[in-house]
Write a structure and sequence with these properties.
Length: about 300
Amino acid sequence: MTKPTDKQIPITVEEDIAAFLDRLWLKQGVSQHTSAAYRTDLRNFQRFLSQYQQTQLRQVGQLDIERYLLWRRQQGLSPRSTARALSALKKFYQHAVAERWCTHDPTAKLARPKQPQVIPYTLSEQEVEALLAIPDPADPVQLRDKAMLEVLYATGLRVTELVQLQVDQVHWQQELVRVVGKGNKERLIPLGEEALEWLQQYLTHGRHQLCEQPGDWLFVTRRCGPLTRQAFWYRIRYYAQQAGIRSQLSPHTLRHAFATHLLNHGADLRVLQMLLGHSDLSTTQIYTYVARERLQQLHAIHHPRA
């Protein structure tokens, strides 16, 4: 099979996809990123159907989806992206059955493809300290970045959660930050003395220097709006280079460091799950492998008979 051509999606299919995504947002509060990914996955499946079977989303059976999954494998697409595509299809057809667009769910008996376990890369405690020491507090922009990095490492927030924080989400007396994460689930996370100190410094000496009327956003740009996820990721990479960190980084590097360092210092896995906002403990358990690997490295370096 060749790659499906970029055929126009039928209007009725676009309407079905839009209705499904609206319902998914109302019921589960999925992010714009997830919604966009599901839209792309469903459109790609429709293009496949249009080229090879001349059918539409409402008309398929299990065999059609199995052929699509086989085609993806033949194209060398990753198991992770295929798992996401199948997840989109499963949710769509559950909705389709509930709305009586379809009489049965063609994905019901399909298992998600197995994915290789990806161990998240993290920084050592020394590397984190070096990174946090780089921003110059005398500069309002770098003072803001310093406060953001400190909060990120202290709380393990997702970068999207960090850049979308508003002033009233910080509870100073309780020393907590209130976060609304995936699925509109709310959690309270301790900030710690260091993060609170730099956050106060930023609010006193940086925020209004960047923007005279910053509004509700906690971390603002000179244009008085929030940073984008991409802009803050660029800032992290800049400071990492300045700190001499040559290791591979990702937008979640400090989140991974937060989780791994807590485990290394004896944190309970269930507590870590709550702090990270994971709905499933199995997602949190990946950090036990990172912590174990670090312990093995320390043992190899320091034990006289290692």
